[in-house]
Write a structure and sequence with these properties.
By secondary structure, this protein is α/β, with parallel strands linked by helices. It is 37% helix and 25% strand. It has twelve helices and 13 strands. Strand 4 and strand 5 form a beta hairpin. The longest helix has 23 residues. The chain starts with a helix and ends with a helix.
């Protein structure tokens, strides 16, 4: 079995992911649902062979040594993010098919105020959501807009590199964790000596990386980063809780001064079954939210977002309401994906 055949079949069916598991047929994810690609049951040796095709001998040996390996490859004219991992003494593979081209920011269906982030000169912008929620695509679209409109130095730290940028007005350096630098923390410390204007951090995983990112924003850099959190309030709590209690007040203070916005997104199945559409909470940091962050009153952030529509902010539930009222998603999908299901029921009349 050739990996190219699976990728081509996935592309023809607009699949977002492929899963290769010993004892099961190869699966792909179409409109969020896993489906079998063929009736053929994969064997242990076939899974190993597909892993070698993807990673090469060196990458496959790293997988054997460590139990998993992350990489990105280009096959069938498609950029693919790959994770190879061991489970119950068998090789499994998860592949994410990325868009061939970086989409235009205004084509993603995000709140209009998101475009203002491309004009910023300093501060931190977080893009959050669960795996597969489109965070990487949103960030790529934002950075590429900067690339086409500003004479800046964009520096990315990624694990692995997903979208490849073609420098336009900006210059772009993309560094891969594990290949170009040892870790996010090391790469970010070095970045401050590399004259960047814009820094992308693939994920803020540890206190050292978070603290260095805050320092970068304080010293006049524009920092974009991702977190696997479901809301702006959760993101702030996750960052603060990464530190020991004695340091949390300082981190809240720094965050209140540097954070400028949080985009939290979900991908929702379209009502007509033709694909998925993004539902997005957008928090724009204003003086009221700065005070809530500094005072540790994150529980009040959701209500502040809901009452900040005049500056372009929107809550997740109001985003879902807009999608349901415009018939892009069903009322039931709006309810299922809502944070406050009673609020959705009341406003949609069911």
């Amino acid at each position: 079995m050739k990996i190219e055949d699976l990728i081509l079949a996935a592309k023809e069916n607009n699949a977002s992911d492929i899963h290769i598991i010993c004892g099961l047929p190869p699966k792909y994810r179409v409109i969020g649902e896993l489906r079998s690609m063929t009736d053929h049951i994969l064997t242990h040796d076939e899974c190993d062979s597909l892993a070698i095709q993807l990673a090469g001998e060196e990458g496959y040996q790293q997988y054997l040594d460590e139990g998993e390996v992350d990489l990105a490859v280009t096959l069938c004219d498609t950029r693919i993010r790959v994770n190879i991992f061991s489970q119950q003494d068998h090789t499994s593979i998860a592949l994410r098919l990325l868009n061939d081209n970086i989409p235009l920011l205004d084509s993603l269906g995000l709140p209009p105020a998101v475009t203002n982030f491309t004009l910023l000169k300093r501060g931190i912008v977080l893009v959050t959501g669960q795996t597969g929620s489109g965070k990487s695509t949103t960030l790529a679209a934002i950075l590429n807009e900067i690339n086409h409109t500003r004479c800046d130095h964009i520096l990315t730290l990624e694990d692995p590199i997903e979208y490849i940028y073609t420098p336009d007005k900006a210059i772009v350096n993309q560094r891969e964790i594990g290949r170009d630098t040892k870790s996010y923390a090391n790469g970010l410390r070095a970045a401050l000596r590399e004259d960047p204007d814009v820094i992308l951090i693939g994920e803020m995983r540890d206190p050292v990386t978070i603290e260095t990112a805050l320092t970068a924003a304080e010293t006049g850099h524009l920092v974009f980063a991702t977190l696997h959190t479901g809301s702006a309030a959760d993101s702030i709590d996750r960052i603060v809780d990464s530190f020991e209690e004695a340091k949390q007040h300082q981190i809240r203070s720094q965050l209140s001064m540097t954070l400028v916005g949080v985009i939290s997104q979900q991908l929702i199945p379209k009502k007509d079954g033709s694909g998925r559409v993004v539902a997005c909470e957008l928090m724009i940091v204003n003086p009221a939210i700065k005070n809530l962050i500094r005072e540790g009153k994150t529980a009040q952030i959701d209500s502040t977002i809901a009452t900040s529509a005049d500056i372009g902010a929107i809550s997740m539930d109001n985003s879902l309401l807009r999608l349901a009222r415009s018939k892009q998603i069903s009322n039931e999908s709006a309810r299922i994906y809502a944070r406050n299901q009673d609020y959705i029921k009341k406003n949609l009349g069911f």
